[in-house]
Amino acid sequence: MPDVQTLVNDFVLKLKRRKIEGSQASAKQTAELLRSVVSHQRLPYINQATVLLDAVRAVGEQLIAANPVELAVGNIVRRILHIIREEDLTSTASAMEGLSLSANSDDDDNFEREDHPALSAAAVAAAARSTLRAPSLQTLLEGIPESASAPHPSSSGGDSEGKTAERSSRSKKLKHDVIEAINELIQDIETCHEQISEQAVGLIHQNEVILTLGRSRTVKEFLCAANEKKRSFRVFIAEGAPRYLGHVLAKELVAKGLQTTVITDSAVFAMISRVNMVIVGAHAIMANGGVIAPVGINMVALAAQRHAVPFVVVAGSHKLCPLYPHNPEVLLNDFKSPSDLLDFGEFSDCMDFSTSGGSPRLHVVNPAFDFIPSKLVSLFITDTGGHSPSYIYRLIADYYSADDFVVQRRPAS
Amino acid sequence: MDLRRLPRTVIDPKVRQVGFFTSGDPPSARFNSNPADTTAATAATSATAAAISSSSPNSDINLAGNSLSPVMIPPLRRMSPRRCDDMQMPIGSYNPSESVLGTSPSRRGINGPDFSEVATSAWLGISGSMKAAASFPGSSGEMMMAGKNGGNALVKNMDSTALAVKTLPGVTEKDGGTLTDMKNDGAGTVRHQKQTTTRAERRAIQEAQRASKAAAMMDEKDGGTLTDIKNEGAGTVRHQKQTTTKAERRAIQEAQRASKAVAMMDGKGGKSIASTGGGAPSISNQEKVLKQSQKKDGPQDTGAASEKKVSRNPDKDRKKDIPQPRMQFDDKNRVEKAKRRAVVNQFEARNRVELFRHLPQYEHGPQLPYLESKFFHLDHIHPSVYKVGLQYLSGTITGGNARCQEMLLAFREAIIDYSTPPEKVLVRDLTSKIGSYVSFLIECRPLSVSMGNAIRFLKNRVAKLHRNLSESEAKSRLISDVDRFINEKIIVADQIIVQHAVTKIRDGDVLLIYGYSTVVEMILLHAHEQGKQFRVVVVDSRPKLEGKILLRKLVMKGLSCTYTHINAISYVMHEVKCVVLGASAILSNGTVFSRVGTACIAMVAHAFRVPVLICCEAYKFHERVQLDSICSNELGNPDVISNVPGKEDVNHLANWADHKNLQLLNLFYDATPSDYVSMIVTEHGMVPPTSVPVIVREYGKDQFIF
Questions:
Q1: Is there a contact between B552 and A348 (Cβ–Cβ < 8 Å)?
Q2: In terms of Cα–Cα distance, which of B487, B315, B472, B465 is closest to B408?
Q3: Which of A219, A238, B110, B545 gives 20 to 30 Å between its CA and that of A35?
Q4: CA–CA separation, B419 vs A285, rounded Å?
Q5: Cβ-defined contact of A241 to B567 (cutoff 8 Å)
Q6: pTM of the entire structure?
């Protein structure tokens, strides 16, 4: 346990100091950390899922609090919570299959329900339905009773002693399954670029002119993938002040042999009329289809809308955030150091603190992110394919269980 | 029959004009619906001299006699007294302004052509009916003498071409000339005879015109007629001589017409549409005719000859001043030609941006030391102009106002040091000199619209100089003109703009400004001095970071500021109440041409429903139109994009030029669509962007005719 705790503390510190750059890195590291948390968690015979959930939630809470703006961390915590639930459910289901349909006792599920007074039966039913069987015409036709009865082992009878041995094997199996699933998740996060860039050829045509701002690894892979397929097109890169990651992207693309033009951020509007498509990366995709992206992209999105240029956001599914944004420009934003804009002491000579009553007359604003409302986005390209902004809520329902949307509240209550 | 048709033909344009004019109710013009009154008032706005007394009654008679009674002639804005004073140039012998000027009556010879030119240029906003009305005073002279004949002739003239408006300048030319004769000839009978002959000629001309429908012919003929009239002093003997020469000349004209018919038609079309191109082709023909007549008539008084030149030059200049097609740098031949002429040897930049091949993309910097060393070996460029040019090149002088002002001051220096070389004429030599200076400045950096307008003004002032002015007098006039331009168009204009814009700043406002605009700075400081409590968000962008300079000035003055870069615009726009921006130029479709990024700011402001104020002096307005930022723009040094000052770790593009696939684009300007602009603040008031063409039309001519 202590070694896990040090790992957690290290990671929290890194997050707090913003040492981890990029949502992919933080997502991956979060998943790895939680994997070790899960593997080190000692499980009792009963209540395994609940214990696991609580452990993960406790760590996740710390992580989210460490950097609430890095939404990928929270996303991964929720994903893992969801994985645990799912594994638990499948094991339960398999156990039920293994027993008999009439055996209706299930401790885990039962305890879980007691543990979660807020959880409605309908939610469980929905979750179970979505995980256990795909919606088919048959289930629709056969009606609710059957579909409801299958995942509804409601009342708990007395447990027979004969099940203990089986349950211990099940407990190991649960942990094993969860770790397997987390490994899969990490795999997914690592390979999301390939899956996204596979779709590049289908979206970029010959002689296309593409504009992007700043640097996103996803965008880079996307463009390079299209280039490797012998598509020739031109790329305008807005440099993305004050970090100038556009320069890095330009260098990388030129090395791959792409026709690249670097422009200043202010020239975006001037150039957008000659651009066929805008492709940008995202920091996070919110549940309403809005996007949190590096600063400046809202300007690009508005310009693209003005000139009816498709605005495409490429992002791995770990960036899908189940939260609905409220005042995201302020609440989900990060403010960087003013030294990006003004050198230290550059204006100290003309600041007169004696007159202004102590409050500085000069503020420097250096936000890190922009929020792009969903109406400005034409298309999302995730590793599961292209989606329109209005479909994002459904993707989120696939990846997260509704109980985990709010991670923090549980310990407080 | 003809008389009946007359009102219709004349009225039609007038009726069309009503809508045209009600938009701007001139404060000074209080003409009623009586056309006679209008014309009389037109003529009599400053009528004092005897020259007028002959013409203004005529006009009354003419209009009354023709029973030309369109119910409404809209008030004539152009004829407000101030404007008449402004037009300090010969406008037809019957025009009062001449008497105001007190110039010698010997100049009358040129009045015809001059008038037509003024009519086309200054009155172009006013449509044909105004010209028709203006032509009446002249024609009425005949009518008084010859009864209805003249009227018929006029009517025929009016009807003869479908393009009545086009021919009208010709008519006025002719009539002006006739009138001149009338006034100066002694004996009434002789005059009458002569007039009938000229009328006969004219009718013949009209017949021919009607047959051919070539609008251009009219002017040519008139030119001929006019020349005749000019050359003759008084008496019938001379008149005889002229008829012979006239015949010859007409033959010449026929030949010319045959050869140049197509070109002339084009020119005509341009004349009727382009506001500045008035009568250029016809004048060039006239010029030839003049040369012919000079050859034939032999000795002529030099005064008249010089007058002709004076009258001709402005037209040439105006022809040049038509927004000439900019040098397109994808045209290899022309680039080669220009290079051979160039003083500044620019090197083509490597890795040029394909989309901007039509714009000059040169290496920046390497030629500067060489040019600086050349400073003491200048042959034809004035040192002050050279200095300003190098300052443009190196980027020490930027900003529309500053560049224009410095250029004018340099020209002022050059004018002070100017002395006419022997055997040359000041007007012509100085014009060509200024032209060479300008082309040097263009080599250093493409002209801004403000500079273009200032050059246009200066050239016009040079061209309008009187021939009989002494050199020192001419120079002092030009210098005072330059001073006045700087004062009126820039300094005073800025003050008025500040006064207008300050009214829009209230306590508690948060204003967003972008880059460094001098007018905006003045507005903010003025509002601060008035004790208004407001906050300023200074938005800046790479690579120039002009906002820092402004930020420093504002913070020094004690304004509370927020500084950010253009990418964060969506974040700061939430709190902003009003966006105040400067402009490099405002084009007549309302497009605001300004430093790159302005369009982004305006767009985001529009998206957040924040009003956008553009502060711009009216001399930066231009009749050109533009839809995008690509067709006409300026490219800066691409190297400044690759290296970020103060950030050594950002050096990813250090050797960018080695990669042939990589281009860096440093745009200077962009075009903001007019729908993002809430209001444009000029010295003429606060107007919506849709009113830009109105200002260009109504006030644009001021720049040439003070």
A1: no
A2: B487
A3: A219
A4: 73
A5: yes
A6: 0.68
Q: Which residue has the tokens 């985990």?
A: A404
**Chain B environment of A295 (Cβ under 8 Å):** 567-568, 570-571
Decide if A269 and B629 are in contact by the 8 Å CB cutoff. Answer: yes
**Interchain CB distance below 8 Å, A367 and B571:** yes
Instruction: Return the residue matching tokens 């409220």.
Output: A326
Start-to-end CA span in chain B (Å): 44
Which residues on A lie below 8 Å from B353 (Cβ)? Answer: 261
Q: Are B486 and B408 in contact (CB under 8 A)?
A: yes
CA distances from B101 to B114, B121, B175, B481 (A): 15, 20, 22, 17
Written as one letter, the residue type at B245 is: T
In the beta sheet, which residues pair with residue B582?
B615
> Concatenated DSSP letters for B155-179?
HHHHHH-S-HHHHHHHHHHHHHHHH
Hey, which residues 37-56 in chain B have their CB within 8 Å of chain A?
A: none
> pLDDT tens digit string along B202-252?
665 565 556 455 444 444 444 444 444 444 444 444 444 444 456 566 656
Delimiting residues of CATH 3.40.50.10470 domain(s) in chain A: 198-333+368-404
Q: Which helix (H) or strand (E) covers residue B14, if one does?
A: helix B2-22
Distance CA B83, CA B650 (A): 59
Distances (CA, A) of A281 to A131, A334, B514, B664, B705: 30, 17, 27, 22, 57
Q: Kindly determine whether residue A303 and residue B355, on different chains, have CB atoms separated by under 8 Å.
A: no
Task: Measure the CA–CA gap between B482 and A152, rounded to whole angstroms.
Answer: 93
Which of B570, B601, B633, B651 to mutate: most A Cβ within 10 Å?
B570
What is the rounded CA–CA span in Å between residue B226 and residue B222?
A: 6
Condensed to tens digits (0 to 9), the pLDDT of residues B323-376 reads 455 677 777 787 777 777 776 666 777 778 888 888 887 776 667 777 777 777
Task: Outline where DSSP puts E strands in B330-487.
Answer: none
Find, among B120, B221, B170, the residue nearest to B701 by Cα: B120
In A342-369, which positions are buried (b, 16+ CB within 10 angstroms) versus exposed (e)? beeeebeebeeeeeeeeeebbebbbbbb
Closest chain B residue to A329, measured at CA: B571
CATH number for the domain formed by residue range(s) A198-333+368-404: 3.40.50.10470
Residue B577 CB neighbours (<10 A): 16
- The whole-angstrom distance between B505's CA and the closest CA on chain A is 19
Tell me what ipTM this predicted complex has. 0.83
Q: What angle do CA B689, B681, B597 make, to 5 degrees?
A: 70
Q: Please tell me which of the candidates B559, B564, B633 has its beta carbon nearest to residue A365.
A: B564
pLDDT band of residue B445 (cuts 50, 70, 90) is confident
DSSP state of A70: -
What is the Cα–Cα distance from B464 to B240, expressed in whole angstroms?
34
DSSP letters, B311-371, are HHHHHHHHHHHS-PPPPPTT-HHHHHHHHHH-SS-PPBPSS--GGGTTS--B--STHHHHH
In this prediction, residue A209 has a pLDDT band, given cuts at 50, 70 and 90, of very high
**Residue of chain B nearest A260, judged by CA positions:** B662
